[in-house]
Amino acid sequence: MSPLPVARAEIVVDLAAIRHNVRRLRELSGVQMMTVVKADGYGHGMSEVARAAREAGADWIGVATIAEALALRAGGDTGRVLCWLTVPGEDWAAAVSADVDVTAYSVAELDEIEAAVATSGRPARVQLKIDTGLSRGGAPVDTWPDVVAAARAGERAGTWRVTGIWSHLAASDEPEHPANDAQEAVFRDALAVAETAGLRPEVRHLANSAAAILRPSARFDLVRVGLASYGLDPAPGHTPDLGLRPAMTVRALLAQTKPLAAGASVSYGHTWTADTATSVGLVPVGYGDGVPRHASNTAQVQVDGKRRTIRGRVCMDQFVVDLDGDLPAAGEEVVLFGPGQHGEPTAQDWAEASGTISYEIVTRVGGRLTRRYVES
Ligand SMILES: *Cc1c(COP(=O)(O)O)cnc(C)c1O
User: Which residues pair with 80 in a beta bridge?
Assistant: First the structure.
């Protein structure tokens, strides 16, 4: 039965697995490791993951927003932290005062950072991001010489130190995709432009999890690893077995079990009908807790050592599983997903059942679920 303490529905995070994964990936890549903990550590808890990653040797922690970086500082993290997604009017001064490395995509952002340095009274640490073909954030290639020139001028003036130059790949989970070579070539050209202008960044970086594992040429000085740190596969079908361990288990207690007659239909819209007599169990979590409604009628959970398929639609607070005639007592443990070592489904299984990626499965779970940390 369920391990103590008994929670009605919870996320269990194995911090030893995260440490193991960070160590393994750092050893594999052979360069500096940035563990990415944005979006509340991909649903695993930002500060707890950051602490575990530091213990395992992470040189840097990466987040999207300034607010996330400041929350890390508030949680006691004193190491190097990079953030990379801002809007005009952002509190750059707070980031500079908190010794966070910030990312600039444009001269306008460098101007905002310069103003923040004036108020915070200390030089900033700035990294420059070039858009090498993802067409998401970053300096367009034609603006790069101007961004680099402004960055170098600020460095000479003592306004900041340019600590990094970086970019992000579009198709690192498809190692044969031509965008990988093309983006890496643009990145190398951008580094040459920066070097000619006199910039000497501490770290040049391009690789996320998939590229860190699958593309040694993209590792440069540092890899930014999110998903693989949590033990999930960033490129299903391509990743070799690295012995990574999924850190998240989502479990609940069955709220009710009962027999179901042949011909009875289940949940809203009656999208599933029992063609023979069976039994069902009520799982007290739903899309309000991040369980994808797209998992209706497809995903599986584990109850009493067996895989059980969701029947009917996932509701806001609950869903129903087929118990195939078994009638375990209410209170029996349900494992939605976990590492998979004991026959339970994995986050990857849920992703495939729901038409999404494991990133989304782990990041979206939350709602009323409580979180508990363990050491396996
Ligand atoms: C989220 C993110 C990462 C981490 O990506 P994974 O595929 O989870 O390793 C790296 N870099 C940037 C810019 C990101 O936004």
Answer: 60
Q: Please spell the DSSP secondary structure of 102-154, one letter per residue.
A: EEE-SHHHHHHHHHHHHHHTS-EEEEEEB-SSS-SSSB-GGGHHHHHHHHHHH
* 168 CB near ligand 1 (under 6 Å): yes
Return d(Cα 229, Cα 267) in angstroms, integer. Answer: 37
36 lines ligand 1 (CB under 6 A): yes
Angle at which helix 144-156 crosses helix 107-120, to 10 degrees, equals: 20
What domains sit in the chain, N to C, each tagged with a CATH number?
A: 31-230 (3.20.20.10), 248-374 (2.40.37.10)
pLDDT averaged over consecutive 10-residue blocks of the chain (376 residues)? 70 98 98 98 98 98 98 98 97 98 98 96 97 98 98 98 98 98 98 98 98 98 98 97 98 98 98 98 98 98 98 98 98 98 98 98 98 96
Set 38, 42, 230, 359: catalytic member: 38
Residue 240: asked if its preceding bond is cis (omega within 30°), the reply is no
Does the pTM exceed 0.90? yes
**Cα 338 to ligand 1 centre (Å):** 22
Q: What's phi and psi for 291, nearest 5 deg?
A: -75, 120
Active site residue 287: no
Task: Provide the β-strand partners of residue 266.
Answer: 272
Which of ligand 1's atoms lies nearest the C-alpha of 173? Answer: 7
- 34 in Cβ contact with 49 (< 8 Å): no
What gap in Å lies between CA 282 and CA 255, rounded to an integer?
5
Residue type, 6: V
Q: How many CB atoms lie within 10 A of CB 93?
A: 20
